[in-house]
Amino acid sequence: MGNALSGYQHEIGAHGYVAVIASVGASLRSLTYEGRDLVVPFEAEEVRPAYRGVTLVPWPNRVVDGRYRFGGVDEQLPLTEPERGHALHGLAAWLDFEPVHRESARVVLAATIEAQAGYPHRLAIEVEFRVDAGGLHTTVTAKNVGRDAAPYGTGPHPYLVAGEGSVDDWTLTLPAAEVLEVTPDRLIPTATAAVDAPREGDTFDFRMPRRIGATEIDHAFTGLAYDAEGPDGAVQATLTDADGRGVGMAWRRECPWVQIHTADGSGRTGLAVEPMTCPPDAFNSGVDLIVLEPGDSSSARWTIFAI
Questions:
Q1: What DSSP letter does each residue of 29-52 carry, written as one string?
Q2: pTM of this prediction?
């Protein structure tokens, strides 16, 4: 499909699923199952709002103040979240990814993050989108094609949709035991806490299915309950409506964190569920930060499926 404002449109489909990938940011522009939305879509001729569906590399979430130190060098990234003064969601959001493989149920897009001020490293990024009976599978692979070690992390940014209504009406199941607390104004990470710790009469404990209601969330969760030992162990979050229909997301141990956001600034029309290889501000904390040596690669994958 032709070059729209959001880039070239790559439609793939199978087994009732239809996904449209916009090339700018390798963004999941829409995903439906038998005609119903599983994510909040945006229009092809629309500048992608709120990082909706974008691929987050070489870091997910925030680098506080855009500053970090790596390899003995102090770096300053552009502040792409000016209202809070942080560098937000990586460097690939506005890159135009080129297709390197295309078939009816699969597309692979590629782009290079060039060395630049604040991130003097070169990474080759490939994003595979594949549809089968199990849903939409996404795999992000980064290879360090530069000369020096590079800090790295990744994750997606879909806003899941359970059905009619809004986030308030839907039931969330999230098998996470810990939440990363943040400051209320700038969302700067402070410390992890148990999800069942009281929070003004509520908790962030969704280990058992629970209606979200008016709870406001923009936090990273960890302490995930995987269904098996070893690298093949998976975890899944589900979002359902009153009839039990909805959408789920599954990922493996490559992503020990997941950001949940109730989209309070945009009408609570979808729930952001973002599996992440590292927590917010990992460039500073070093927690679960991937360091790619020259020639090294790292992959992470996740699946969105209908319920």
A1: EEEEETTEESB----TTSPPPTTT
A2: 0.97
